Amino acid sequence: MKTYNVNEKGYYGDFGGAYIPEMLYPNVEELRQQYLSIMNEDSFKEEFHQLLKDYVGRPSPLYFAKRMSEKHGAKIYLKREDLNHTGAHKINNTIGQILMAKRLGKNRIIAETGAGQHGVATATVCALMGIDCVVYMGEIDIDRQAPNVARMKMLGAEVRPAKSGSRTLKDATNEAIRDWINNPVDTHYIIGSAIGPHPYPDMVTRFQSIISEEIKWQLKEKEGRENPDYVVACIGGGSNAAGTYYHFLEDEKVGIIAVEAAGKGVDSGESAATSALGKEGIIHGCKTLLMQTGDGQITEPYSISAGLDYPGVGPMHAHLYRSGRGEFFSITDEDAMKAGLELCKTEGIIPAIESSHALAIFHHKKFKKDDVIVINLSGRGDKDLNTYIDYFDL
Amino acid sequence: MNRIHKKLQEDKKLLSIYFTAGYPNLEDTVPIIEQLQKSGVDMLEIGLPFSDPLADGPTIQESSTHALTNGMTTAKLFEQLKDIRKTVNIPLIIMGYFNPMMQYGVEAFCKKCNEIGIDGLIIPDLPVDVYNEEYRSIFEKYNLINVFLITPQTSEDRIRFIDSVSNGFIYMVSSASVTGAKNTFGDAQNQYFERISNMKLKSPQIVGFGISNAETFKAATKYGKGAIIGSAFIKMIKEKGIEGIDDFVKSIRL
Q1: Which of A18, A292, A297 sits opposite B127 (nearest CB)?
Q2: Whether A132 and A22 share a structural domain
Q3: What is the DSSP code (8-state) at residue A56?
Q4: Does B65 sit within 8 Å of A165, measured CB to CB?
Q5: pLDDT tens-digit profile of B20-35?
Q6: Residue range B3-252, CATH number
Q7: What is the pTM of this model?
Q8: Taking an 8 Å Cβ-Cβ cutoff, which residues of chain A contact chain B?
Q9: Predicted ipTM?
């Protein structure tokens, strides 16, 4: 049977697997053997859902965007992950993983962060559980994202600068992996996106799949049917997208639309459009599409949105791309910023610039008037105010 | 017979040196190899630099970044090494991450290694399971020995499995760390070395990570067949250049 889900070996089609140094094997293997049984425990599910409800504020609304719908001639729904505690979908995964870490007997948490959203979401759940937290962040990003650095510190996390390589997200991920190699017994690594060695992409996807689980019953209430015609999400590593697609993967009547960051243009040399520019390779423990030189050195991506600024893409998405199941678009900084401002003025919602990329789809694809389209509004724009201010000279 | 097998049969403790190709200068690769052989080193790991070396500490990361900035590439390394067997007869191993090899083409990479006279490969992020299922036949076709790592956390079953897949030596990582992190061995390491020694594996073990001087070399080779020095060598060459090699090697094996 054709499937877009992970197989028992940890692959989505040609992509995925666990390409890790032997030093990481015991940790990753422990997780691989246990993650599904732990996630299926009644006590785990109960605690996870309780926290999602009372602490995160789920379910997040599925909002019918009336004026956007009129403007673009389609029935547009926004899945409001921006209303979650800490302002984005990231918290769904960190809640799940902190509960996982506790059950694995780990008493120290490490994480990587680019813009700081996943770092904040991790620091938050560590504070909630009283567990030590170290967040690796590229030295350059620390300078660019001062408010999130302050948030993490207030939440009790230690923020360690990644000083190697290009000193951004991919290097922060390298540093977190090195920390895990150095601390193999007591530490759990909370990866923030649907990337990394198996079982991480699948585990993160399952924690984020609450998004599409809710979409199904919410849409049933509003439209009398569970499945939209299209689901749309932006993709950096791809965790919000994975969660948005998850329950629709095997129903080919639901169109899957993935929006990547084209930066200054796909061919400008300053882009993060991995499906267009990437080739098959290995990054951070998984085989996937990634941006690299002809010699196999991983290159530095660019996007105005720090959350989409990753040289790879989760293996599920690489498979959706190669198999043709997903339709991929590349949206420039300019188009994303305009789409973000459009949502502000049309619906009174200030989106994260990541999510603005997904919103720009209406200027790049024509939909039918009765098409039901669900866009995952993955985060709110507070963190991006300075970028918006500079960009629009506000 | 592969040069590694031959070397492992010698009745001595082996000193192996890791260095990053193209560092400190792009064209230093061959002079470094020749000098290391002249100074009596038994075996070499030639580091193929990678942008994102996950298992390496700051010293090797920096040397890798520097080498890439110097213009080192896979093709360049092969070109530098094309006549290496005219002057060098000790075993040569290329150590690098899997992505650059994939981009070169795994079979093309192995074929080229064979033509040049490379004896083996160490690829930290190519797990033994994947190697065994997908790549083993290619490596064997080109007479390349693939070397696997074990660590203090590796389970006995897995060590036995790695031993069964290995046909040269096992790279015994001394402690839970990236390269260049520790400078001394404590009781925990000694117990681990002894534990592995008592397993009576078919593959000899060569110890790496944390060996930087005569004392740690001696401790590592009490149970193991030999030891690999990487970060300490790179620090030395950064400071003293090729002229420093002979003194460095003599200081290890007193």
Answers
A1: A18
A2: yes
A3: I
A4: yes
A5: 999 999 999 999 999 9
A6: 3.20.20.70
A7: 0.97
A8: 17-23, 25-26, 164-165, 170-171, 174, 177-178, 181-185, 279-285, 292, 294-299
A9: 0.94
